[in-house]
Amino acid sequence: MAPITVVEGRRLPLSNLEKVLYPATGFTKGEVLHYYATVAEVLLPHLRDRAVSFLRYPDGPDGQVFFTKNVPPGTPDWVTTAEVPRVEGPSRMVLVQDLPSLMWAANLVTEFHTHQWLVDTPDEADRIVFDLDPGAPASIVQCCEVALWLRERLAADGIETYAKTSGSKGLHLLAAVRGASSERVSEYAKSLAVEAEKAMPRLALHRMTRNLRPGKVFVDWSQNAARKTTATPYTLRARPEPTVSAPVTWEEVEECGSPGRLDFHATDIAARVQDYGDLLAPLLDPDSAGRLP
Hints:
- The protein has 293 residues and is α+β, with helices and mostly antiparallel strands.
- It is 27% helix and 25% strand.
- Strands 10, 11, 12, 13, 14, 16 and 17 form a 7-stranded mixed beta sheet that branches. Strands 5, 6, 7, 8, 9 and 15 form a 6-stranded antiparallel beta sheet that branches. The chain has a two-stranded antiparallel sheet with strand order 1-2.
- Strand 7 (81-84) and strand 8 form a beta hairpin.
- The termini are far apart.
- GO terms for molecular function: DNA ligase (ATP) activity.
C-alpha cells in the first residue's frame, strides 16, 4: 500500500518513491517529489489559473511518454478543474492551484505545460513566448545570440522580455502582454521571427523546414497559438537527466560561451532561487505587461 502523506490537510498516497526515473543519475521518484515541494513557492504562481497539460513519463524518459490534457481518471475531487475551449469542443482540464494539487500531479510523474492565457480569459493572451530551438551543430550558445537580438527588438516596442532554459537544447523567451488575442500575438511573434531571420540570415530561421535547420536557430513563434502549450517555468523535463526549464539572468545569456553554462538540474534550483528569487516574477505583475504595437 502506498504511503499516505498529508499536505495542507489533504491526504495523498505517494507511490513507488524509490523508483529510479532518471537512470543516468539515479534520480528517484521520491527526489522528484522533493524537488517540486522545494520549488513550489516559485512554481505555483506560474501554474495558477492556467489549464495544465501533463506530459507524463511514469517509467522515466526511456519509457512511454504521453500527453494528458483532459482531467485524468482518479483525480481527487478537491483538485480544481475548469472547462476550456478546444478546437474539437470544450474540454475539462486540471488547474494546479495549491501545494496539495502540485504534489498530487507530481506523483503522476509529469512535465507541466501551460497555455499563454488564463482560464478565465481564454480569448486574451497574457504572454508572448518564443521557443528558440537549435539545429545541430548549433546549440544554446547560438540561441543566446538570437535571444539578445529579440530582447532588444521587443524592448523597442515597449515589451520587457525574460529568459529561461527549455530544459532541453534551447531557450525560451517570455514577456507579459495585454489587450490582444492569441491570434494577434501569434501574428506579431511571427513578424519578429521573420525580422530576426532577415537580420541574422546565417543564424536565425522562422520556418520549421528540416533541411534548413542545421546550424541555425529556429525561432518558433507558433507556441503563441491558443491551442498550444509550453513547458512551465521550473518544470522538470523528461530527458536523460533531471534537467529543469530554469529562469536565467540576461547576464548569463550574454556570457554563455558553452552549452554547459546554461544546463541546470533539479539539484541546482534551490540555490538559484535563494540567490535570485523568481527571475520571472515580473511576468506575474499585470502592471508590467506591454501592449503590442
